[in-house]
Amino acid sequence: MLVEFSVANHLSFKDKKTLSLEAAPIKEHEENIIESAGYKLLRSAVIYGANSSGKSNFIKSLTTMQTIVSESAKKTSTDKIEVEPFLLNTETENEPSFFEILFLLEGQRYRYGFEANQTTVISEWLFVQKGKKETYLFLRQRNEFEFSDAFAEGKGLELRTRDNALFLSTVDQWNGPLSKKIMLWFNSNTILSGLKHEKDRLYTLACYDMSYWRKELEIFLNQFNLGFTEFYIDEEQSSQRKNAIFTYHNKFNNSGVAESKIKFNLTNQESSGTNKLFDMAGNIIVGLITGRLTIIDELDAKLHPLITLSIVKLFNSPFHNRNNAQLIFATHDTNLLSKGCFRRDQIYFTEKDKYEATDLYSLVEYEESDGTKVRNDRRYEKDYINGRYGAIPFIGDFFGINADE
Q: Which one, of 117, 80, 87, lies nearest residue 99 by Cα?
């Protein structure tokens, strides 16, 4: 489970910014909390902000860290590390990007991170917390390494680690038991785009091939009353199966009696929202039921607000979310703020300062103009739209458009 993620000097993030899923000591929506290994963690978090404020860049930063960790050992010595420093500052443009993540694995809390530019891993670290004490497992500063006795799996492999490769990934290649578990944790996390979701259809189709997941998918999709009574996959029609999914609708006579069924092509004849929901259904359901971390940019795009709300409620529900899955998503759907489904520590905002750097802050830590904290009886949606918490677009005067000279 994720405890927190931090990023600095990457994309629009200049200074270190952190999204924490550790619950704040507030008394509201306690059903939204997971208790595990002595921690109280949030089931979900939502990120709001104006266009170009950095919401997507935060999720891209998570993606970047996951990709570097997963693919580092597969690269060659001449491959670039896919980082991009904050380019709007003369100092940071030449400094490394920073990534750090805290997570729970088998009842232990680990802290792993690294700093890297496009050619070199500058530093890398892995800590474990036992009780109240945190101890290092390995420390790296360029080509200098230090190990604890608890990380014997890494000894001797420092000489096999390229300048542009992560040590953790190298140890995983050599079957280090803890490194393999950490790599598996990284790879199990799912990061989705709510706009470019077509590639996720293959995963939904793979789930549909298995009887257990087929049943769960059908239950999930049928709850949204999308108009069709069932769907069918013609595997022989297309090798990629992109256009071989059909939905069945009732055909009625003039008396309102369903006489037969008519087949529609999902891609060509159903709405873009229906297509998105189908494409993402596999990852959403598997993530929810197996307890994965699921991260979605633009979750609300193409979807009705009540559908978005239903997905969020599934993750926030102790009944449906029994294996401690977590959801982080970015959205413009302010309707969610008025539905009472979030704690103040679950609501995050992104806003750029005058130097074009992104700030990230939660509602629970936001201070009013008089220095007080936001009360839990505030009307969050109305306040946000009115600019009380910042993170909204500043729109200029359109008077000059098509105006007579």
A: 117
CA angle 312, 315, 318 (to 5 degrees): 130
The CA distance from 110 to 118, in Å, is 26
What's the confidence (pLDDT) of residue 238? Answer: 47
Amino acid at 58: F
Distance CA 230, CA 219 (A): 11
Residue 309 structure tokens: 């709300």
Q: What pLDDT, in 10s, does the model give residues 137-176?
A: 999 999 999 999 999 999 999 999 999 999 999 999 999 9
CA distance 340 to 381: 10
Strand locations in 38-107 (E)? 39-42, 44-49, 97-105
The phi-psi region of residue 122 (left if phi > 0; otherwise alpha if psi is between -120 and 50; otherwise beta) is: alpha
Beta strand pairing call for 347-352 and 44-49:
parallel
Cα separation, 320 vs 108, whole angstroms: 25
The pLDDT tens digits of the residues spanning 321-351 come to 999 999 999 999 999 998 889 999 999 999 9
Q: In the chain, what percentage of residues exceed pLDDT 70?
A: 96
- Report CA-CA distances (Å) from 12 to 50, 85, 95, 356, 360: 14, 8, 14, 7, 11
Domains by residue range for the chain, with CATH: 2-189+292-385 (3.40.50), 198-277 (no CATH)
* Host H or E run for residue 233: strand 230-233
Overall pTM > 0.85: yes
**249-308 pLDDT tens trace:** 889 999 999 899 998 988 889 899 999 999 999 999 999 999 999 999 999 999 999 999
Q: Please answer whether residues 48 and 384 qualify as being in contact, where contact means their C-beta atoms are separated by less than 8 angstroms.
A: yes
